[in-house]
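Entry 0007
Protein: Insulin-like growth factor 2 mRNA-binding protein 1
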Amino acid sequence: VLDGLLAQCGTVENCEQVNTDSETAVVNVTYASREHARQAIQKLNGYLLENNALRVSYIPDETSDMDGTQRGTENGRRPGYGPRGGLRGGSPSSGMPPKPPHADIPVRLLVPTQYVGAIIGKEGATIRNITKQTQSKIDVHRKENAGAAEKPISIHSTPEGCSAACRMILEIMHQEAKDTKTADEVPLKILAHNNFVGRLIGKEGRNLKKVEQDTDTKITISP
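Output (structure tokens):
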């Protein structure tokens, strides 16, 4: 049904479903031209398909800006819409300059509650030091999920700044685990936005396998 709808708007070069674990179906679509993609967004955004409203937007893609030929659209069957490039054309933000890709995508970590104190440090000295050294904005969500075994931490920075802050936080947790003899190993838990998990895994798991091989790590994505 979706293929037929997409074909009405222009020539579809590629159509790929990127996640199957949730009730939301996310599909990446590549059209032969920008004009076809623009028509698809105008016609299909909000279109009711089997009582589900389609949400359609451009996928930010650096290569398409260079060659000027291809644009993607995303079809998601869900009531809400997450931050993926913004709905251009008809959105309240149309006409705004595009933001850099990391501007609104923090790295979110999940850390064991017993290590939060060590990460913050005395009167916040440790977290201030991490923030300063990595030029990041770091939020420790201590009050979220009262009584939970883990707490989220959000890091806003450049990709390099986020990586450096992650490394420093992980080192603090390892040291704390060693000092208190609470765990032999503390994994780094990253909360990934549903919109990006498909791209993170890649076709037939290729992206994830490459990351694991290049970094000599074992990565598990929770369902």
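Curator remark: The two ends are 27 Å apart (CA to CA). Residues 159-180 form the longest helix (22 residues).
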